Amino acid sequence: MTFNRRIFLGSAAAVTASLATPIVISAQGRPRVVVVGGGAGGATAARYIANDSQGAIDVTLIEPTRAYYSCFFSNLYLGGFRDYDSLGHSYGNLAATYGVNVVHDWAVAVDRDAKTVRLAGGGAVRYDRLVLSPGIDFIEDSVPGWSLATQNAMPHAYKAGSQTQLLRAQVEAMPEGGTYAMVAPPNPFRCPPGPYERISMVAHMLKQTNPTAKILIADPKEGFSKQGLFEDGWERHYPGMITRIGPDFGGDVVEVDAEAMTLSIDGAVESVDVCNVIPAQRAGSIAFAADITEGNWAPVSAYDLSSRADPEIHVLGDSAAQGAMPKSGFSANSQAKVCANAIVAALSDGRAFPPRFSNTCWSLIDTDDGIKVGATYEASDEGIVSTGGFVSQVGETAEVRAETYRESLDWYAAITSDMFG
Amino acid sequence: MLARALLSGAFAVAVLALPGQAEDRGEGEVLFRPCGACHMIGDGAVHRVGPHLNGLFGRPIGGAEGYEYSDDLIAARDRGVIWSEELLDRFLAGPRDTFRQTSMVFRGIRSPEDRAALIGYLRSEGGTAEAQNGAEPAAIDPEIAAILEIAGDVAYGAYLSSECTACHRATGGEDIPSIAGMAPSVFIAGIVAYRNGTREHQVMNTLSARLGDEEIAALAAYFETTE
Ligand SMILES: Cc1cc2nc3c(=O)[nH]c(=O)nc-3n(C[C@H](O)[C@H](O)[C@H](O)COP(=O)(O)OP(=O)(O)OC[C@H]3O[C@@H](n4cnc5c(N)ncnc54)[C@H](O)[C@@H]3O)c2cc1C
Hints:
The complex is a heterodimer of chains A (421) and B (227). Chain A is an alpha/beta fold and 421 residues long. Chain A has helices spanning 12-20, 40-52, 74-78, 92-96, 162-172, 194-209, 227-237, 285-289, 329-347, 398-420; strands spanning 32-36, 58-62, 67-69, 88-90, 101-103, 107-111, 116-119, 124-126, 129-132, 136-138, 179-183, 214-218, 242-245, 254-257, 262-265, 268-271, 274-277, 281-283, 298-299, 313-315, 320-321, 357-366, 369-380, 383-391. Chain A binds chain B through residues 1, 48, 330, 333-334, 337, 341, 351, 353, 356, 358, 360, 372, 374-376, 387-390, 392, 399, 403, 406-407, 409-411, 413-415, 417-418, and chain B through 107, 110-111, 155-156, 158-160, 162-163, 165-169, 173-176, 202-203, 205-207, 209-210, 226. The site of flavin-adenine dinucleotide (FAD) has 39 residues of chain A, from α2, α3, α6, α9 and β22.
C-alpha cells in the first residue's frame, strides 16, 4: 500500500528546514490535515491519511520528540526482557516514504475559528482537519505530596523515555530487602493492565537481584484488569513478595513525601526505597487548550472520532472519551484507522467504510508466562461499544503461556511498523 | 473460479473435522488443524501453500511432483534423503533447525508426545499410501465455496486489512505468520475455520466471528494483491 513520493517537506533535510522556519506555509491548494502527537494514535493517523489519500491530502505531524519511545513494552525493559533502544522509533520513514511533513515542536494553542495550531517555536499551522492524539497528562493534586516537581524523586514512568530509565535505575539501586512502592491510579487511566504488568516485571527483576525485597501497591480501585490472572501469577512466581492494599484498607487514602521518601496509607506511614507514583490522568493539555474537553477527557463521536465540540477536530487514543475501548496503544492505532478513513473520504475522493475497532493487550508475568485480553467494538450513537471479547484463563499450560508471550513480541514489531511504516 | 472452489473444498475437508471421525483420530487430528492451512492429506489431496502429504513416509525429501521446494530441500533430495518418521519427528521439533531455509512458517512442536500423535495421524490419513495427485477432489465445503464465488471488493479489503496489520507483518514473525500474498482459497478456509471455531486462537476467533462473507472475500481479494 505504500507509494513513493517526496512532496513538500518530505525528507529528513526538509524536516530540519521546517524547524528553522517560523511559519509553515500552506501547501498548494491541497486540503491540509494537521496531526498533533506522533504516538500510537497520531503516527498511525498521519501514515494512513498520507498513504490512503495518495498525496491528495497534505499531512503535517507535530511532535516534539525526535524518537518515539513506546510505553508499550517499557515494562519489559524494567524487567530486563528488552533493552531501552528497542523501544525507540524514528519518524524518518513517515517523512521520507509517506511524505508526511514532520515538525518537531510543541503545539501550544488551537484557534478553532481561524483553524490554526500555534507552535511553541513560533508560527502557526493552518488545518482543514485537526487530529489530536497527545496521550495523557497528570492531575497533579490527585496524590497529595506528589507534583511534577517531585517526579524525579518519585517517578511515574507512565510516559516512556527518561522516566522509564530513571525508574529502572532506582529499582537496581534498591538496598537489599528494601521496599518498592507503587501508588496505582484511579480509573480511567492509560493501559488498565499496565501497573500490574509493571509489578510483575519489577518482581521478576528483584527475584534475581534482591530476593528479600518487598513490593507494596496502594490501589484506590476495588479491582483491576486481569486481576485473577495476575494474582495467580504472583502467587506462583513471587510468593510473599507482593502486597496490594485496596480501598477497603485505605489504598485510596494515600499521601507521599518525596523528601522523606515516605508513603502514608490511611495515616500509616511507611519508609520506602522506590516510590512509583502513577497519578490520576486526564487528556493531554492541548485538548484543554483547544477547549474541546468535558471533565478530564475529550468526548468524541464513535463514527469518526470527531470531537463532540468541533467536527473538524478529531481526538484519538488516551485523550478521547469514546466509550468502551480501554486506553491502549492498540486501541489508539485502531481508532486512528477509522478516523483516517473518514478524513480521506471527506477531504479527497476516498470511499468511506463502516467503522470497526479492536484491541488486544498482552502482559508478561514472568519468563514465558504471557497473558492477554482483547475485544472487538463497533460505533453507536452513545459511543464505541464492545461486541465480543476474550481473556486468558488461570491454569493454562506453560506452552500456551509461552506462545502468548511470543505472540506479543510479533505484535510489538507489527504495530510499530504499522505506525511508522 | 470453479477450479479454485474445488481446491478449497478439498482443503476444507482436510481442515474441518467431519462428525464422527474426531474421536477415532484423536489428538493427532487436532494437532493437524493448524497444518491444514497449508497442507492437505487424504483423498483428493493436492499441493497448497505446502505440498500434499500423501505417501510422505518413504518419499524422497522434496519429492512430491509439481511442488516447488526451497533450495536446501532440493539439496537434501539430491543427497538421497527420504522422509522417515525419525526425520519428520526432528523436523517437526524445529523445522528451521533441520532445514535452515525451509519456507515453512512454523515454530515447531516441543512435546515428543504431540509429535508422535501427529505422525500417527499422518500415517493413518494416507502418509503411507501412494500419492493421489490424480484423484477426484472431495466434496466442496459449501461455506467456503460460497465465499469463493463472491468477487471481493479490493478497496474494502484494503480498509479491513488495517485491522490485520496491527499484528501481521508483511515479512511474518515467529509466531504470527505473514498473510501477504496468500492464495484466496487458503485465506478463506483459514478465516472460516476460525469463524467456526474449528481452528482455535482467541484473537482470531474473536475477530473472525464478526466477519461476514463479503468481508472475508474482500480481505482475501486484497491480500492476494499484496507482497
Ligand atoms: C507502562 C505502560 C505499558 C503499556 N503497555 C501497553 C501494551 O502492552 N499494549 C497497548 O496497546 N498499550 C499499552 N500501553 C498504553 C499505550 O502506551 C497508550 O495507550 C498509547 O500510547 C496511547 O496512544 P496516544 O496516541 O493516545 O498517546 P501516545 O502514544 O502517548 O502519544 C502521544 C504523543 O503526543 C505528543 N504530544 C503530547 N502533547 C503534545 C503537544 N502539545 N504537541 C505536540 N505533541 C504532543 C507526545 O510527545 C507523544 O509522542 C502502555 C502504557 C504504559 C504506561
